[in-house]
Amino acid sequence: MLITRIVVGSWPRAERSRWNWSRLFGPPWENLIVELDDLTHTSGEWLRGTGPEADIVISSRIRLARNLAQFPFLSRSDESTRAEIEGLLHQHVSDLRLPQPLTYLDVQNMSELDRRFLVERQLISRELCESSGARGVGISSGENVSLMVNEEDHLRIQVLRSGLALEDCWEEIDRIDDSLEEKVTYAFSEQLGYLTACPTNVGTGIRVSVMLHLPALVMTKEIQKVYQALQKIHLAVRGLYGEGSQAMGDFYQISNQVTLGKSELDIISEVKDVIPQIIGYERKYREALVKEKRRDLHDQVSRAYGILRTAQTISSEETMHLLSSVRMGINLGLIDDLEIPTVNELFIHTQPAHLQKLRNSALESGERNVARACYLRERLASNNDVP
Ligand SMILES: Nc1ncnc2c1ncn2[C@@H]1O[C@H](COP(=O)(O)OP(=O)(O)OP(=O)(O)O)[C@@H](O)[C@H]1O
């Protein structure tokens, strides 16, 4: 097929703001993530519920897909080329000076449990977890930044923030991208923009997404209308774990599908501009539920909280479902002795790899259900504060 004209998708480099190195202070190295076990009792800053509209918008995320010009794409690289790419990017990623210190982890030699733990944490993708060969990830101490090496592309840069904060994500990721580009030459075409392993990422290589908690729209079945409206304007609606995952716990990710022929800022605006409307709908339906069905809603929320505090065995799916009700209950003032950051953290800490790392042993599915119930009882009985 002959491609006759494709508008350059990327914001011209010259117009991009350069990282002001002088603004940086010395990194607080004492906060370095030494081992993954250090993370099991904490949560990422982006889960602390501090950002704008954090009652409904859990987090904002931007990721960039980049490849090095001097190497073939990974699908055409042999083991030694793969190792060479990893070695080079490992060095450059480790050399980055960010406001928070960054730790580089060797994913190739990591246990499967640790890899799954990082997926649950949203720090690596399932693809990086399940693929083979030389690969790694750089993670900032607050978990806002992660840089995956040898995923689908040579480099995937991700920045996360609490709430609706796409501009902040962009500013940070753009600085990181620029400082790496001073060290390496990215695969870039004047006509197409950044060249990526999958054609759907060519151009800007950007994915802009917002993770929303929409229980009222789900309860009232209005979510289908939102879904259809977003598809019409070419935005993707995905589940908690991205492409191909189901919407669990009433979480929905809204992201761009088009990466080519537009600037990064246009793409960010397209996603950002629809979010206030969805937030407005969710608020409207929450209010209607409180007004018209307050007792039923209070009952549902209280039962959910009760089960989470007393169950002796509970599946991951049921936990997500009940935590979703509790989260909405807190936001509507129906529960007053629990904080949103605790609930956000429980969504992550009750997942299989987290439970096993918290318990420090491998657990079968039935054992995990018992461990999960036990963990929930402990956390909800005594500790409402996120460490
Ligand atoms: N706003 C968000 N907040 C927190 N995590 C997110 C957010 N958006 C996406 N993620 C997580 O990032 C991971 C990748 O998501 P997704 O597959 O949609 O993105 P991607 O990087 O574009 O990958 P691909 O190119 O394979 O589609 C998933 O685990 C997903 O849950």
UniProtKB/TrEMBL annotation:
The keyword Heme does not apply. CDD domains: bacterial_phosphagen_kinase. It catalyses: L-arginyl-[protein] + ATP = N(omega)-phospho-L-arginyl-[protein] + ADP + H(+). One of its GO terms (cellular component) is extracellular space. GO terms for molecular function: ATP binding; creatine kinase activity; protein arginine kinase activity. Its EC number is 2.7.14.1. Residues 56-285 form the Phosphagen kinase C-terminal domain. InterPro entries: Arg_Kinase (IPR023660), ATP-guanido_PTrfase (IPR000749), ATP-guanido_PTrfase_AS (IPR022415), ATP-guanido_PTrfase_cat (IPR022414), Gln_synth/guanido_kin_cat_dom (IPR014746). Keywords: ATP-binding, Kinase, Nucleotide-binding, Transferase. GO terms for biological process: phosphocreatine biosynthetic process. Transmembrane segments: none annotated. ATP binds at residues 59-63, 156, 207-211, 238-243. Pfam families: ATP-gua_Ptrans (PF00217). It is an enzyme of class 2 (transferase). Belongs to the ATP:guanido phosphotransferase family. Catalyzes the specific phosphorylation of arginine residues in proteins. HAMAP family: Prot_Arg_kinase (MF_00602). This is Protein-arginine kinase. The gene is mcsB.
